[in-house]
Predict the structure.
Amino acid sequence: MHRDAWVGNVASTAAGPLLMDFERVSVGPPEWDLVSTGVKTTTTRAVTEAEYAEFCEAYGTDVTEWEGYELLAGARELRMTTYAAQHAATRPEWRAGAQ
């Protein structure tokens, strides 16, 4: 698993997508990587439902239908919140997002 799989760590190339930022890569459940995209659809709305449907069709599964989604989504949301709170301490433009 990549552990930080999000659109900012994927480059589009002529040969297809290229994953970057592998300092945290490990063996584990693929759902951890997939949950990030699910959360960006169900929680932050940074990914539209149409974009998510296209993602699911290409990947072959919809992680939001997996029985463990809520648990991993909660962990991912907590990570996003603490990251925003950390930056909000010194960056006023992050404060609304952290709240």
In short: The chain has one domain: 27-98.
